[in-house]
Amino acid sequence: MKINSNNHVYETLPNFRNNRQLPEEEQIIIELKPASKPDIDKLNVKISGIRATDHEIYPPEWKAEKIEDASREFVASKFVSIRGLEVEGVGEIKDFETFHKEAPPELVAWVAQAVMSAAELMAADRSNFTSDGSETVVEE
To answer: Which domain holds residue 114?
Structure first.
C-alpha cells in the first residue's frame, strides 16, 4: 500500500455549514499537513513539562496559557494556507494567527483536530468530492 508522507499537503474542504456544496470559487479550502507520531510525542512532552512545573512558583493560569501557546504553535506548524474565508469586519483571512483569532471556533477546533489524524485529512481532501459536493469513494 502506498500512502502519503507526513509532508503531504492536503487541500481540505471542512464540513462547515454547506462548504462542500458551494461552488468551488466560494468554498473554504484549508491546506494542512498531518502531524507525525514524533511530532505528537514532542508536543506531549512539552505539555507534560509545563504541567510538572512547581505550582507554587507558576500559577495555574500561567500553565494554562503556556499549554495553549504550545498547542497553537503546534497547529500553526501544520497549517499551510487558507482561502475562501471572509469574516465580517475583518476581511479575507489569509494566515493562521488571524484564522485562530477570528474564525468561528468550531472551524478552528476542526483544524486542530484534523492535523492529528491523517485519516481525517484524507476524508476531507478536496479530491474526494465532486463539483456538487457529493462524496466520491474514499480509500483509507
So the answer is: 10-19+36-87+95-128
